[in-house]
Amino acid sequence: MRMFRTWMLVLVALIASSSPAGAQTVQKCRAPDGTVRYQSAACAPGERVLATWDAEPDPATPVAAPSMPTRAMSTAPRRGRTAYRRAAARADVDPCRAAKERRDAVERRVGLARTYELLSALQRDVYDACR
Question: Which of 7, 59, 103, 130 could form a disulfide with 96 if both were Cys (CB 3.0 to 4.6 A apart)?
Answer without folding.
Answer: 130
